[in-house]
């Protein structure tokens, strides 16, 4: 049995970890540059470093799922949930690309 078949949720979880880290870094950079404001009402009152720290901690927690039985679940619900979360994060990162382009081009 291949690694992909034994751990069907591994790639979507890793993708979410990477997208969350990228979002945290770009948000931190955008906040420091004064180019953006934090849109998440739970994080908007925090300083940029605290926001980045929260996102870094969230990425670490997500990565921890890779060492649990969750990655071996053959669940369509979990797979679709992770794919939807990745799609949302990809959209958020697209917004980051737009403001970076507007700011530096």
Automatic annotation (TrEMBL):
Residues 15-101 form the DUF5658 domain. It comes from the Bacteria. Signal peptide: none annotated. InterPro entries: DUF5658. Keywords: Membrane, Transmembrane, Transmembrane helix. The chain crosses the membrane at residues 12-36, 48-68, 80-104. This is DUF5658 domain-containing protein. It comes from Planococcus rifietoensis.
